[in-house]
User: Fold this.
Amino acid sequence: MTRPNWTRSSFCSEGNACLHVAADERGEAVSLMESDTPDTTLGATPQALRGLIGHIKAGRLDRRG
Assistant:
């Protein structure tokens, strides 16, 4: 198994709370990792991640009340 090629979010500053993303070699799966907990990763399909990002950008996951 090859090591993921992590890419850091362009919104990341110099702190430890940075989001990293890596795609598998075939582009069939992506992994997400937060820099302050590198041993914990979240796996998803590219389509699921695209949907999540779309909901976040549209404000559909904002806290209410």
About this structure: The chain has a mean pLDDT of 87. The beta strands are 7-8, 19-23, 30-34, 41-44. The longest strand covers residues 19-23.
